[in-house]
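[agent] plan:
  1. take the single chain provided in the ticket
  2. run structure prediction with default settings
  3. attach structure tokens to the ticket
  4. add a short note for the reviewer (M.T.)
[agent] executing step 1
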Amino acid sequence: MNRILVIGSAGAGKSTLSRQLSEQLNLPIIHLDRHYWQPHWVPTPDEEWDRFVIEAAEREQWIMDGNYSRTLDLRLQRADTVIFLDMSRWLCMYRIVERRIKYHGKTRPDLHEECPEKLDWAFFNWVWNYKKRTRARVMGKLQILHHQKQIIILKTRKQVKDYLRSVSPRPIQGLRNE
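[agent] step 2 finished; step 3 output follows
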């Protein structure tokens, strides 16, 4: 595993799993949210975003977490392992509320420094409807790739913990995070 893509709904645990895998595998992390969201939650323009994703995906080793459906095919093509966190809607909702409370007035470690945690109705609605709106499309893409790439679908916190225990650590080689 050299290029691991971690996808799933907001609140599914993508950033947390990515950090844990990075520690075990000594691979650099690319938190897509940190690069997409500019100060004060301004999105990166599409052309600039596409260039960043292409350049990041071309690297030899990474753990990349985030959704961004428009560039998903490009990242899937380059990844050798895809982990889909297919968590329950209720767990994701709980976690985004918990995250909002924990980081009130602060920025999460996986975001740009000038993007304080927020929770608005549009985001709440996006998370609530993720399975209905996005899951089938993601599962279809993963089904097509299952013979070419390692596809791991984790549906519970226990499965995530068991998976982490099953991953063999790698020797340290110049770890860096983005």
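[agent] step 4 note for reviewer: The chain has one domain: 3-166.
[agent] ticket updated
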